[in-house]
Amino acid sequence: MKPIRAPKLGWFIVIVALLIGGTTFAANQQHGEGETNVYVVQSGDSLSKIARKLSVTLDALLAANPQITNPNAIYVGQELNLPGVVTVADDLHSDTVEPPVLPPPEVNIVAPTAVPEPTAAPVVAQGVATSVGLVPVVTGFQNPVYLTHAKDQSGRLFVVEQRGVVWSVESGVINPVPFLNISQQVLGNTSEKGFLGLAFHPNYAQNGYVFGHYSNLAGDTVISRWTVSADPNIADPASEKVIFQLPQPFVNHNGGELSFGPDGYLYLGLGDGGGGGDPLGHGQNANSLFGAILRIDVNVAGTYAIPTTNPYAQGGGAPEVWATGLRNPWRFSFDRATGNLFVADVGQNEYEEVSLIPAGVGGLNLGWNVLEGSHCYQGAGKCDPAPYLAPIAEYDHSLGCSVTGGYVYRGIESPSLYGTYLYSDYCTGTIWGLREVAPGSLQTTTLAESGLFVSSFGEDEAGEVYVVDYVGGAVYKIVGQ
Q1: E strand or H helix at 137
Q2: 10-81 has which fold?
């Protein structure tokens, strides 16, 4: 499908310039006439912050400075070589543009503040939504990246902060004590690492199991399980059981999604390992756990087992792998009515994409790095797209820089949205709706120009959908109009 047309990104550049205090201008000055080939590390600098200041990719900065063996260990006064300037924006989980660097975790956690929910917009009785409203629910979070529910009929929402803190929200009131705080063991001060995903066991009301997807202090991807304590609003940090751990070859493309499917198995998304253009060839290697969606059975006495119906359970690839050919899946979700799996995969230089994996179908290849969206990736030359799953939606980088996947709306408060897949772009905040208007015919509609930095969507138990604003630290409910 053709990319949706929308206003250019000039306003976004202005916002980013304000947010980072003019560092873009400073970087342009440094790369103007009389530029030097060295940057001197200043107090408070990190490599990701320096890359953002200089408008270059983190990978390019590392490549220009092979003397850096530990990206987390640079010192004030250290001289760094300057790579060439990169001007193409990438994504929240990419090689160029990074969101604001998180401060170190605080020992004393202060609860966010609740916002009284205003009177909701009138419910649309019929028709198809042509726009959506955003109703404020709660604010005050520090870089929130996810929202979910516990499947326990409590009506609570759970909001994940990248630094490693999870808050529970009930009837608009935030529990003053975090549901889970593992900030001291999470590498949460880099743009693409941190506590990235949360999933409650389908039988949580009986077993109290909750699973998290986070980066440990070594930068490894870790999937762990915790058990709720005697207080239903607090998980026991000491109950952690590591289910899965995987060292990351680069600092970016960590994926982060964690979700139980309708089959009861745990699905997790992993990026291609990082670096520009998938330099290690993970996307098209079924034996690699990178660049893939994995499916594992955590209902076992040990760590996990391989479902016998996984496509490579009997050989031919890594037995955990469910789907391949992904660059950096930033949010996937199951349609609670059909079981179909919607996957948003962040693009490299030109295209963002959304794909649909039919319910129960494993072994599909989404094409990266042969394809970027439905197009031959520039590093692949000519290619045949036929063997790969074609996206159901895509847009080019005139409309944004990093897709954020959402959910198919199955709630009851906004019937005009029913059956619509909602997704967004992190850089522009545009919210789109994708729905089937005739058998086999999909239509995409621009529903809102939110002005938010949409890091994630989320669902409550009733199927209502929420938007999470990374920079503003707020959560909004989506209402069809």
Answers
A1: strand 132-139
A2: Membrane-bound Lytic Murein Transglycosylase D; Chain A (3.10.350)
